[in-house]
Amino acid sequence: MIKIQNVSYQYDGCDIPALNNISLEINSGEYVALTGPNGCGKTTLIRLLNALIRPAEGVVSIDGLDTNIAANHKEIRRTVGMLFQNPDNQIVGMTVEEDIAFGPGNLNWPPQEIRRQVGEILKSLGLQSLALRAPHTLSGGEKRLVSLAGVLIMNPRYIAFDEPTAYLDPSGRRRVLQMMEQLHRQGIGVIHITHDVNDMVDAGRLLAMERGEIILDGPPREILRKIAETRDSFLSLPPVMELLHQLKKRGWPLSPDILSVEDAEREINHLLTSLSGEQS
Amino acid sequence: MIRFGQYYSADSFGHRLDARVKILATVVLSILILQARGWEILLPSFSLLAFCAASRLKVSAVRDALRPLVLFAGLLFALHLFFTDGAVVFQAPYLPVAITREGFLRGLLISWQFLCLALGGAVLTLTTAPSDLVCGLEHLLSPLKHLRIPVQDIAVMVSMALRFVPLFLEEYARIKTAQAARGACVETGRYDQKLKALAALLMPLITGAFRRADDLAEAMEARGYARGPRTTLHQLHFGAEETLALTVLFLLLAVLLGSRYCT
């Protein structure tokens, strides 16, 4: 379990704290969507989880390991994988396989073991044909997958994704999202920073931040419904939810619990059958 | 892109050979080439050609690698041709320029040496992936660790530099296009305008590089990088082929040294 207790953090030369007295627990295997306007502290929050920064106040512990203790760092970095916004700046190796081997090399695995595991990871992500390619020759989606492979090989229990679908075309986007969903099913805790409300709908839990504080925390269905009623948020609703809410306001008998196209389809079908029932 | 000796993967004796042996061979052959007097140059030349054949290098790849250097070799030849004292074989009318026999031979030898050295470098980089090259160098230089030289850190730095060269070239092209779109005279315009445009090009490139370096350092740290010993994917192997290559290499060295000092 990830435990964040009363954590504040302030960057050097900044007047306002990036994080302001945050307390949070994330269970292993949870799928958490994290959202908020730019500069609200989302990235700072996930940097805490990997011990890239240490809290000035408060405690961050990852499966019981305190990030303030330097001796824990290697284990913490193995436990929490990080995928940054720009994969170009994350890929270190001159070839794909070499990049994937970077983390295990830092953990001093023997070369035979690294070779074996790299082979397995490449196979499971369908990247074998790219093994010897230079990173700059890959497509955006491929680069994401390669940086993901470099994290997965260390067998992490949690992975924090910082806007993993930014700059991707629809097919690359779908591929990355499917991969994240699959990781979640395998029991890996996923923390997904996103601005896209469609990505939040399927998350188990939605966290919204503003000015270094967590302002909303709960199941996305509840939070979005509340927003649809109050309209008091930086979040915009999924278009289908927006549409059905407008219709509901005009007196259509619709349930407020509509997030996805599938929900809407079911709801409209239901409505149509009941209407035709009344007519006949 | 830099075309000089760009690695292309293939399965051949030359490609399979351990990078350490290849680096060592390049160094020894370079010494042989630089030491050679007169006909002795043929020995390392033929060894290099034999290695090219054993690596099944495409003639076109070798030619492309050497092409930019031929001009320079020609210049070297011309310099020695005209500026060496000796038996005059041709005197230009009205001009103080003379071609001597010694100059001709010396020019031939030196330009040939130059091309051979370049060929040696090109063959090394054509048959060895950059990562293997770095790994081989790291192992060859590992005795320096005892002098407290951080060989492994240097190896990581070198491979990182090689990784980011194409990225910077991309970025350079992108910034250039962006500047040109806003009317900068990067390629056209007067000399001073070009210079100004170049400065305007370098600044964003440099700041971009620093930002990238920051991100990269963070990403490396996030993946558990710390100074100190680390392992790599590469398994070095020393088998029959390596023994054969080293034997041939030392025979060459022995022949040359023998001919030099035993007669």
User: What would you call the structural class of chain A?
Assistant: alpha/beta
List low-confidence stretches of chain B.
Answer: none
Approximate strand percentage of chain A: 15-25%
For the residues shown, what is the average pLDDT of chain A?
Answer: 88
| Strand segment tally of chain B | 2
Main sheet specs of chain B: 2 strands, antiparallel
Give the fraction of residues assigned to helices of chain B: 55-70%
What strand line-up does the widest sheet of chain A have?
6-7-8-3-9-10
**Tally of helical segments of chain B:** 9
Using only C-alpha atoms, the radius of gyration of chain B works out to: 24 Å
How much is the average pLDDT of chain B? Answer: 84
- The first-to-last residue Cα distance of chain A is 57 Å
Order of helices and strands of chain A: EEEHEEHEHHHHEHEHEEHHH
- What's the multimeric state? heterodimer
Keywords:
heterodimer, A: 280 residues, alpha/beta, four-stranded antiparallel sheet, 11 helices, globular, B: 263 residues, mainly alpha
Can you describe what's shown?
Chain A is an alpha/beta fold and 280 residues long. Chain A is built from 11 helices and 10 strands. Chain A has helices at residues 42-49, 73-79, 96-100, 102-106, 111-124, 140-152, 170-185, 197-201, 220-230, 239-249, 261-279; strands spanning 2-9, 19-26, 31-35, 57-62, 65-66, 80-83, 158-162, 189-193, 205-210, 213-218. In chain A, the strands form 2 sheets. Chain A has a 6-stranded mixed sheet, sandwiched between helices. In chain A, strands 2-1-4-5 form a 4-stranded antiparallel sheet, covered by helices on one side. Chain B contains 9 helices and 2 strands. In chain B, helix 2 (19-35) packs antiparallel against helix 3 (42-54) and helix 6 (130-140) runs antiparallel to helix 7. The model of chain B has no long low-confidence stretch (mean pLDDT 84). Chain B is 69% helix and 3% strand. Chain B is an all-alpha fold. Chains A and B meet through helix 2, helix 4 and helix 5 of A and helix 6, helix 7 and helix 8 of B.
